[in-house]
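Discussion board: Methods & Data

I've been asked by a reviewer to show the raw model output for two of the constructs in my manuscript, not just the figures. I'm not sure how much to include, so I'm pasting the format here to get opinions. Each protein appears as its amino acid sequence followed by a line of discrete structure tokens. Is this the kind of thing reviewers expect to see in a supplement, or should I convert it first? Here is construct A:
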Amino acid sequence: MLWQALTTVRDLGRLHDIASILIRYGFGDMVRRMGLANALEKAGRALHWSDAQEFAHLPPPARVRRALEDMGPTFVKLGQVLATRVDLFEPEWITEFSKLQDSAPPLPYDALRQQLTEDLGAPPEDIFAAFDPVPVAAASIAQVHRARLKDGSEVVIKVRRPGIRPVIEADLRWLARLAELAEAQSPELRGFHPQEVVRQFSRSLRNELDFAVECRNAERIAENFAGYADPDEPLGDPGDLSAEAAAEPPPPAGPVIVIPRVYWQWSGERVCVQTFIDGISGRRLAALDQAGLDRKMLARRGARAVLKMIVEDGFFHADPHPGNVFYLPGNRIAFIDFGMVGRLSELRRDQLTRLLLGLVKHDSARVADVMLDWTGNAAVDEDGLTLEIQAFVEQYHGVALKQLKLGGMLSDLVAILRQHQLELPADLSLLIKAFISLEGMGRELDPDFEMASEAMPMLEQAMRARYAPAAVLKRGWHAASEVFSLLAGLPRDLSRLLRAARRGRLEVHIDVLHLKRVGNQLDSAANRLVVGIVVAALIVGSSIVMTVPGGPSLLGLPLFGLLGFLGAVAGSLWLLLSIWRSGKADRE
């Protein structure tokens, strides 16, 4: 299969590079078992097998992270997606994947100018009053330049690197093939569901390649925050009546949450023009004190904003790391880079609300119900899983609200699922990773930050809204509409059923789980039984022929008797080999 996939010289060279990097970092055994070595040798490509002593001292998570960095931008992006799969990987793996940073040397402006002119519809110097040819940031997919519009507005221009899509599509093809091989030939990798992970990653990366998708995401989040106000109170002691404590904080100079404006007349698949955010990056926390910003207020506002996106809107920034957050005068917060977003249905938001309330209020039954809903139709020991979840929640009984770390609690819950070899749906794994990142950022801003305290009012409000009379009436009307629709179509369905029965075309299909496998096992057993009977008959018949004098002979023995014994030996060997293979397949 892999040999047939070697269709172009470029793809063959890329596979050779990937295999060489894996060998260098001590994964040569995986290269052999996945069949990459044999395929490359057939294609005339030699691999240099080394002992990889240079990296032998590194733990496996660090070696995998280093290998992903060396394999290029597509694999760095893959590692960043793997960092969201807290349900599949242990914390030490998540920590290493989170270290992957997407950076690349910037391209010279001359290499971008022609493509940029095509996308803008005119040369940049004709559209902008000023354009900086030196990029302010560069990554593997795009680089960012500053410019100024003719009306004086400061903007940033995100430009996709020329020729990057064919390179990434080639890497995605190889990833899909490697995932298929890994799942088929490596039992230990099968538990990580490589094909499903690659499918999720491919969708995410193709969306990131289309900047129009990112622009639409930014506009949708901006609409959700239109008119948003965050009621911050003074941070002092309510009993302190001093002038400093009683003074109200200065009102923010603009919206509390800032989302860059998109200039659609110049934005598209390969270029994105947005408002320039002039603020302090989330990576420069020391600069906040110099600017006179309130860390506690910023932590609270950021938490409330992301919780609103998750609980109320169901559409959230899925990668809220410090590089994508800026702090502005007036203790305002700006979010950028909406290439990776998460979506939650109303059902998911309801489940999340119940789960978080259950954790905060130590309601183990509520938490267990939600977690069982999340496992879907997977085979699971429900009693054992419920008992573990209940024991986990009960250990926090009596713990003060301010001492609860929701991110850590969610991580521990996911670890319980991982122990039962269960995985979360992709939207939930993305959500939990974003939630953990959010709490970590809050504690970096304010060591006393209490995520549970910030989440409680919003969760209770969401629960009250769900059971408000108008909401209950709306759900009841929706359910009644579905029931009426079903009843209205029932006569038509019965008529079709009776018509098919009268014509003798009524068919009943019963799909019994694993029935095909059982049938195959029965066929195999019957074949072995027949071969065993034939072998026994050959032995008995050959023994009789051996006693009959006359006829041709070989080595002093009757020829036909000897041939019969040889056939019996061959049949016996086949029978033993078949039984051994069957036992090996059952063990796997």
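Construct B, same format:
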Amino acid sequence: MKSILEQINSPNDLKSLKVKDLEQLAVELREFIIDIVSVKEGHLGASLGVVELTIALHYVFNTPIDKLIWDVGHQAYGHKILTGRKNVFDTNRQFGGISGFPKMQESEYDAFGTGHSSTSISALLGMALAAQLQGKFQRQHIAVIGDASIASGMAFEGLNHAGVTNANILVVLNDNAMGIDPSVGALKKYLTNVKTGTAKEENIFECLNFHYTGPVDGHDLPNLIQHLERLQKIEGPKLLHVITTKGKGLQKAEENQVTYHAPGKFDKQTGELQKKTNLVQPPKFQDVFGKTLVELALKNEKIVGITPAMPTGSSLKFMMEAIPERAFDVGIAEQHAVTLAAGMVTDGLVVFCNIYSTFLQRAYDQVIHDVAIQNLPVIFCLDRAGLVGEDGPTHHGVFDISYLRCIPNLIIFSPLNEVGLRNIMYTAQFGLDHPIAIRYPRGRGSMINWQLPMTKLNIGKAETLKDGNKIAILSTGPIGNMATELIKELNENEAIAHYNFPFIKPLDSILLHEILHKFEHIITIEDSASTGGFGNGVLDFANNIGNHKIIKIFGVPDEFITHGATEKLYKKAGIDKMSVKQYVQQFL
């Protein structure tokens, strides 16, 4: 006998089922997600928590005519499986496979792409107002906003506008008290009070002119369906407050929600994580950051750390455990994080503001207006710089050099290895004349013995890693280690020189003068956008001094790079070792 899930190929197939069948479908959908993610990896806890909600929404509403947005999109695995992607779900996040987030180009059921958080209410309101203007008065618009996304400023901007319209929208607040890490802030406390019945009489959402329902049990399918069917008939902005458990249905995921947000491979029966190898490996860059920050902060009482909702991912958790009063998780609020850091710096503190490269894009004006114009020496530590792998184009940190290099007063640094990261952190804590952005990649470094004594760096200085007489390779960041391997493989000891430029801004003008004068062929390599990046900086310098040698730039091309294993993405972007090797060989 076929399982119920086997018979579901679109939401239309749901509508002929009885509610008791839907409850069995929820069991099967959870098992299906666990089966695939245990082997293929990906986000787990968030999608397990919204299985019943996913089924209920597609059962009641007429998707894709009715518009459904998932915010953040890592909640949407069940949605993808029920909307025609069940048979390809094992390709989720794999190179050439489906995306781990909703993607408009992938399915008509994905009403809006949501890799970053807190965009759903604004996008949904836009769709609803557009529907009104075009006479589509029957179309429904639903946003599921969860994993702490409601606390972001943009979500409030959307609520604020929606509350003065008669737009036909339903905001489903998936309240699981979790982002990737536990939720923080006064709003979390308020929602907790609502759940326990101790909130003050006025309801914040009703005050914003939303028809409020809740809180309701997000795992009670019959009750969910009844509420959604009732709300379907009510006009204007509505909010359904749903209580769910992140990781629901897998005990280990319920007990350890941080780890099981994206746990890697695990045993689908027990939930036990796959045992890590005993092989001694270099540390992850974020752990180097986190442990070095504690090391410095224990000696320098002016040091504080800030992160917007990523204490585990960024490893600020080490400081939160060791010196909690000087480590701040501000929730999903990148703009606030940057300006909070600026405010602290005005009073003499040394602030390490740790934000993923892709998320600093969300606070670009604050970097310019609140930090750079006022020349406040905030220390930005940009984790996940470069191509990050399976999370794909919404998360690749490839634009930071380009969007930061044009800002006056800003230093940009990309270390070759763990020692370089430690040394620039050590240098910055003594006080700089300008703000600085330190970018480093996701994943492991290259050194086993990395906890060496730290030394102070000279701002703007590059270094010669290997001398040569014909070809000069200029690299910035850890991709320089690939260039070192390449040179060894070519075995051209005399011909190829290699220079490490950790300072992307300011560039080492003295060394660049020498390189441009000496070498016939000049190559730059970076794990970032080639447009406006490090190579463009070298090219601009050459043009400004009237040097017209051809400079070959290896960087991420002018396109959004897909998701997949990082080595495959390097090859697709043309910045892998073989691509550079083939170019160099023609001159040898």
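Answer (T.O., handling editor elsewhere):
This is acceptable in a supplement if you add a one-line summary per construct. For B, something like: The radius of gyration is 26 Å.
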